Amino acid sequence: MADQLKSARRGRFAFRVGRALPILAAITLYAAPLSAATDDSASDPGLAAFTRWLDANHPGYGCDEGPAAFTSKTVEAAYPRQRFYYVLTYTRGIRPPYQHSLSLVAAVDDSGHVAPFLPGQPASYSRGLKRVQSKKDARVAGAAILIVGSCAE
Q1: Any idea what DSSP says for residue 134?
Q2: Helix (H, G, I), strand (E, B) or coil at 69
Q3: Nearest in space to 46 (alpha carbons), one of 86, 87, 83
Q4: 85 forms bridges with which residues in the sheet?
Q5: Rounded to the nearest 10 degrees, how much is the dihedral formed by the CA atoms of 101, 107, 108, 110?
Q6: What is the pLDDT of residues 33-71, one digit of tens each?
Q7: pTM here?
Q8: What is the C-alpha R_g of the chain?
Q9: Best CA proximity match to 61, nearest among 76, 51, 49
Q10: Mapping DSSP to helix (H, G, I), strand (E, B) and coil, where does residue 13 land?
């Protein structure tokens, strides 16, 4: 009887371990990209500068995405020699879960200077904008301004 009880306990333990292994594997696979994402700021000086700027100018900010690189071929064509980064808080139809929610796009130049695009200040959209010399340039510039303007607070 005691041998049967030990065998039953071992069987249940093996069943629990067998169920836990796929869950543990899923957690490990999910956590690996997250840890890799935290290393991005160390390898990208622009992202590191943007993160420092956020911490200094918006202490305690909260966001759903970012800080991360903002990639758009249209924006990059209109604003040459600049890199773009963003933070984003999703609109939910309810109050955001963050006390200081933040959504913005900023340009970072080679010297690490951060210049955010500010919705109430049109001059912030012309800073670093490629000079318009043709209809195509005007279309690209207009599209880029609309893209970065749509990502603001």
Answers
A1: S
A2: strand
A3: 83
A4: 69, 106
A5: 170
A6: 333 344 555 688 899 999 999 999 999 888 888 899 989
A7: 0.66
A8: 24
A9: 51
A10: helix
CA distance 138 to 131: 9
Pair of tokens at residue 56: 């200094």
- Burial class from Cβ neighbours inside 10 Å (0-12, 13-18, 19+) for residue 59 reads exposed
Q: Per the structure block, which two tokens stand in for 123?
A: 């001059």
> Which residues, 6 or more positions from 153, have their beta carbon under 8 angstroms from its beta carbon?
102, 103, 104, 119
User: Nearest-CA neighbor of 88 among 110, 65, 122?
Assistant: 65
Closest CA to 128 of 89, 84, 81: 81
Residues 6 or more apart from 31 whose CB is under 8 A from it?
A: none
Task: Name the residue type at position 24.
Answer: L
Rounded Cα gap, residues 107 and 144, in angstroms: 12
Total residue count of the chain as it appears in this document: 153
